Amino acid sequence: MPLLTPNSDTHHIVKFKFKKNIMHQKVSSGAIWESLVGYSRAVRAGNIIEVAGTTAIEDGKIVGIGNPYEQTNCILNKIKKSIEALGGDIQWVTRTRMFVTNIQDWQEIGRAHGEMFGEIRPVTTMVEVKALIDKDLLVEIEATAVMPSN
Q: In the chain, where does DSSP find H-type helix?
């Protein structure tokens, strides 16, 4: 079973009204398990964007096997694209959560995170986990962005 559909950069956006006229939009990455598990790559409700746990998989292949820095860069760029697909901007990220399979890689992961968020400086958490969905995945990141109110 492939990890993603052939074009992992494709974002499918679904818009609908939510309670009390709050705009609710969803972005799909095309991952086959989104419908199986029941989740979206990212969701915007009003001025809040939540991005699901994101890993370094592009076109069905793991990017940067054995390289936590390269995986983190790939992930953060995917998160940036998801936020932009929902009308947001990376500068509005207020929180990231990083799940890593080896906490000893914290400096390489942190360096990539700092390159993306050095000026923004969202709150963040980095925790070591036993494993991710594939043994070659080293990092998974979630993000929250809060857009300015109109």
A: 33-37, 68-85, 106-117
Residues 110-131 have pLDDT tens digits of 999 999 999 999 999 999 999 9
- Residue 77 CA neighbour count, 13 Å, CB half: 13
Based on the number of CB atoms within 10 Å of its own CB, is 121 exposed (0-12), middle (13-18) or buried (19 or more)?
Answer: exposed
Strands (E), 3-138: 12-17, 23-28, 42-45, 48-54, 57-58, 61-62, 93-100, 123-128
Q: What is the pTM of this model?
A: 0.86
Q: List the beta bridge partners of residue 13.
A: 27
Please tell me the distance from the alpha carbon of residue 85 to that of residue 41, in angstroms, as a whole number.
11
Query: What's the one-letter identity of residue 43?
Result: V
Helical H runs in 2-146? 33-37, 68-85, 106-117
pLDDT digits (tens, 9 = 90+) for 19-43: 566 778 888 877 777 788 888 899 9
From 122, 124, 98, 119, select the one nearest 109 (Cα to Cα).
Answer: 98
Q: Which residues contact 121 (CB under 8 A, 6 or more apart)?
A: none
Nearest to 75 by CA among 53, 92, 101: 53
Q: Which residues partner with 143 through β-bridges?
A: 51, 96
